[in-house]
Known about the structure:
Radius of gyration: 20 Å
Order of helices and strands: EHEHEHEHEHEHHEEEHHHHH
Number of domains: 2
Low-confidence stretches: none
Largest sheet: 7 strands, mixed
CATH class of the largest domain: Alpha Beta
Number of helices: 12
Amino acid sequence: MNVRPKKHLGQHFLIDKNISQKIADQFIGYRDCLKVIEVGPGTGALTRPLMNRNDLDLFMMEVDTESIEFLVKEFPDYHEKILHIDFLNADLAAVMGNEPFSVVGNFPYNISTQILFKCLEYRHQIPEIMGMFQKEVAVRIAKPPGSKEYGIISVLLQAFYNIEYCFTVDETAFNPPPKVKSGVIRCTRNDRLSLPCSEKLFIQVVKTAFNQRRKTMRNSLKSLTSGHELPAVFSGERPERLSVDEFIQLTQFIEAECKG
């Protein structure tokens, strides 16, 4: 049975077995986290090497009916774990219970960042995320402060996860080949499960700053400071120079001095 890659689903099926094995080998897995969700398994290229790992309890979430039919036929012993569910709209706690679970996949480019933000909602349960992204996006997520690629998604993900850029994948590894290279990253949860400030305000501060990234923090955050002067350590800086910890400190200042 052949599965047709569907453009509206952003499907680029991984066909290079060496790359599939490399992802499976570098996916850490945790002793206290056996459950794994593979998002968008497609034709099972990554599924096969993941199944060969005895330390993983693998579940698959797929929205493509044709892919579901293929997977059920290809992996009949896993039919109860092949779930016709949209990951982005799923109640993951209801599906996976209260146990921790990791997330892995060759993520469709058009929803890859949405998948990460969905994982952030469940960060208390998700100790590891490993996935394939458009290279430009993967680099942006992993970049530290001080680079032009460092931005909103870098700060919001790095607030809760340590990010490692693992390797680059050429266009020829897929069917159909995408027009850009891909990058694989691993996100492992850090010790910060919650923020010492309003998370909603933290997100607002980060987005407001980077949406005017050519301006200094003094000017870009005027709408949030109610006329108060920012501390000098932040005032003249541009957002790409601030670490996650500094964005937290800045949020705490605005919360205490400007929102009171």
